TrEMBL record:
<feature type="region of interest" description="Disordered">
    <location>
        <begin position="52"/>
        <end position="73"/>
    </location>
</feature>
<protein>
    <recommendedName>
        <fullName>Acid phosphatase</fullName>
    </recommendedName>
</protein>
<dbReference type="InterPro" id="IPR005519">
    <property type="entry name" value="Acid_phosphat_B-like"/>
</dbReference>
<dbReference type="InterPro" id="IPR023214">
    <property type="entry name" value="HAD_sf"/>
</dbReference>
<dbReference type="Pfam" id="PF03767">
    <property type="entry name" value="Acid_phosphat_B"/>
</dbReference>
<dbReference type="InterPro" id="IPR036412">
    <property type="entry name" value="HAD-like_sf"/>
</dbReference>
<keyword id="KW-0732">Signal</keyword>
<feature type="region of interest" description="Disordered">
    <location>
        <begin position="1"/>
        <end position="20"/>
    </location>
</feature>
Amino acid sequence: MCSSVVGLTPNLEASMNTRSPSRVRRGTLAAGVILTAVAVPAALTMPAYAGPQAAHDDHGTSRAALTRAASGTDRLLEPRSRFTMAADGSSGTRPDGAGVPNIDSVKSTIRTYYAADATGIADKTTSPYISELGGVLGKQATQLKGLYNQAKRSGKKPAIVLDADDTTLWTYDMEDNAMHFNFDPVLQDVWVQGQKFPATPGMVQFVAAAQKAGFAIFGLTGRNDDQKVATVANLGKVGYTAFNTDNFFTKWTGKGDSQQPSYITCATAKCTTVEYKAGTRKHIESLGYDIALNVGDQWSDLQGGYADHTLKLPNPTYYLPSPNLAGVEEPKLAPRTRFTMKPDGSSGKTVGGEGIPNIDSVKSTIRTYYGADATGIANKTSSPYITELGRLTGAITPALRASCAVASRLGVKPAIVLDADDTTLWTYDMEDNAMHFNFDPVLQDAWVQGQKFPATPGMVALVNAAQKSGCTLIGLTGRNDDQKAATIGNLAKVGYTGFTNPNYYTKWTGKGDSQQPSYITCAAAKCTTIEYKSQTRAHVQTKAGGGYTILANFGDQFSDLKGGHAIVPIKLPNPTYYLP
Ligand SMILES: [Mg+2]
């Protein structure tokens, strides 16, 4: 929250229930405090009440003061950049949406790290990822001789075990460009059988150096037996000479000859990744090898022992957790929980792969926060998100009602401005269940025209209370003019009583009558969200726009709030997308 009106002037309502000038004067000053929250003290220059006409005469001056006061707050309107997030999604139980890494910022950070283009194809030559792998593998290569000698002392044959995906073969383009970070086993099998994966950067040279140093090489993957031949062929195709069907372990399918080996025993019928992988390493060691080094991109590749050393490669693009073996504690083989991430993706240049919030962990944290089920449908009754919005709207509503009433009495035509998506209407189910966190404008239009959105929790009561207390409702959304009627229809359908066509602002399409208004001028041909929204708010305050005084501006995006022309900006939480 960048603004808070929590705890301000609980007696304000009482102070306004009288026409006594002294009481009203106090109310006005108190309203000034409320309207300006904590960041805009200059708004106290709002004229003291001296009758409607006097207030009206001073209106221009006070508005100028308020506008001045409201500018300069933009510096506070920035997303958080430090996060604490457990890998398992449990951090989402906190009613603190701003503390959940925004999934769009996570994606752009990942794309910066892999130097991926706009379609999700990684740069194969230069990127922070390639540099980091070069450093990690270069250092490990210098230690191969020592590892070999150490393992040799055991009297067994020194060996190295390597996972496949994102350890020897590089799945980035499949994960991003083809799957949009939503794993699809059918598509994966197409990529596997088509042998479409490049080598993980630097790994062909590293494995060749290990072979040269005398190590036996083994592959160990969660890919299944039906994918074994294609996987070994893909490895050969990209330059590995070490792998063959004898030294490459894939997982049983349970069909035909592909059955659980006798050397693997599991606590339950379905083996965990760690049971499968550690059990296979134990088997390899039983064949006379000492596994000097175990290399993987997932912690579950490395847990469970049966290797002298482990090497974790970075991979923020998915997370495959597994319980460790019963009784085995390996606290160092666990994901990081503290992250620094700028909203624009630029942290991907500097923080390293382990320093990027893993996108699967971010999704599960978001789903915990919204109480979403496995299909991506939010809990509509109870969740940390609903708790947070309940606290926020509960804290704001009394002050907002009082402010609307006082300002109405002052004759300054008070209004509140409200964004649509995730401010008055709730898009979670569309974003997660329908879009899988990949925005799709065609699908969005179907939801908009179908008026399918529920209300944002707590907002109907707040908005209707403001309206009843004398504030005009102004809608201001990035949805376009072709979506205006359906949006107003959707708002009425879910219980908002006060939105009107003249005071509902949607964006022009550039087609037919839907053209850029004369009151909006932009630096480039295509207006930014901030240009469109802040100039529309400015227009609303002019005579032509109704001459309103915008007491509060509600939005779930910082771009809804930047650019001034509202006394108090109020940010609602939304980690599900980022519109800079
Ligand atoms: Mg892997």
